[in-house]
Each structure stands twice: as C-alpha cells, then as structure tokens.
Amino acid sequence: MNLKNKLIPFSVTIFIILLDQITKIIVVKNIQLYTVKFSFFADLIRIVHVRNKAIAFSIGNNLPEDVRAVIFSILPLIVLILLIIYIVRTDEVSLLQRWFLAGIIGGGLGNLIDRFFRPAGVVDFIDVKFFGIFGLERWPTFNIADSSIVVCGILLFISLFFKNKIKINKVD
Q: Which ranges of 8-127 would DSSP assign to H, the alpha helix?
C-alpha cells in the first residue's frame, strides 16, 4: 500500500479532533459546570457539563496530580505516537482497520488536548440513562472523543475477529 493510501484515513482523525473540540468549546461557553442544559426523550439523553481528571468511570481520580499526568497524559501520548508510526510503516493492517485506528487516535488526541490545555479536566457532556443496569442509573458522562474510541475500538475488534476467522477457515 502506498503512503498516500496509508495517510488518507487520518482525515477521520482530524475530523474527530475538530468535532470533539468544537463541541467541548460550545459546552464550556454555554453550560454552567455541573448543570444539565438539555434533556431529550424523557430524560434518556441529557447534555450536561462535567469535568474528569481521571479516566473512564473516574478511575484514578484519587491519584496524586503528577501520577495522573504521567499515566493519563504522557503514556497515552507515547502510545498514540507509536501507533501512528506503526500504521504508516506497516502493510499488515487493512484499509478498513486503518480507518478504525484513525478514529481511535482521533478520540485519544481529542481527550489529550483537554488533559494538556484544560487544567480542570476533560470536558464530558453526554449523559445517558442506563436504567439501573450494573447498578448504574446513568452511564458515566462522556464526549465525542470517548464515543469515537469505543465505537472504532469495537469495529476494529470485529474486523480483527472476522479477519482471523477467515484465515482459519482458509487453512482448513
């Protein structure tokens, strides 16, 4: 695969970063911290403004600030840089998987921008009712970057699963 085809999926990375940061700017400017601004579908989805200095489910919230900086900022940045280098250099990743990886990278970079430039923490604003499943009345609040990471991660996993299943079937 030529370099141009390897780089085209990074357009989704740029798109995710822009969409994530624009929505976060809108939330910060228009919704007071820790308040609900909009509610849709009988409170199923709410648009709120919260901050998170930890990771998903507030894991690591009680860690010292300098430890959080390394674990949640520096290490992910290194991993994302290495992933970008791998994607550009390898031919072992399909074009479809490159798009999924680019979405994961976009989400990761979107949240890292917050970690480096928003001292109050990552801006989260999508709040979804979870009906008591797993003891959660509401799913932990998230953002566009988080959504991109999760959706693209699931799609990448499915693509890898079926790619390996096809290879296994070819051997039989």
A: 10-30, 65-69, 75-89, 95-117
Q: Which two tokens stand for residue 14?
A: 């740029």
Is residue 146 annotated as a catalytic residue, yes or no? yes
**What mean pLDDT is predicted for residues 48-76?**
87
Q: What is the pLDDT of residues 41-52, one digit of tens each?
A: 999 999 999 999
Q: Which of 20, 114, 127, 146 is catalytic?
A: 146
Residue 124 bears catalytic tag: yes
The active-site residue out of 20, 114, 124, 127 is 124
Q: Which residue has the tokens 């930890």?
A: 54
Alpha-carbon gap, residue 96 to 155, rounded angstroms: 9
Alpha carbon 40 to its chain's center = 23
Burial class (CB in 10 A: 0-12, 13-18, 19+), 27: buried
Distances in Å between the Cα of 75 and the Cα atoms of 22, 63, 86, 107 are 25, 15, 16, 15
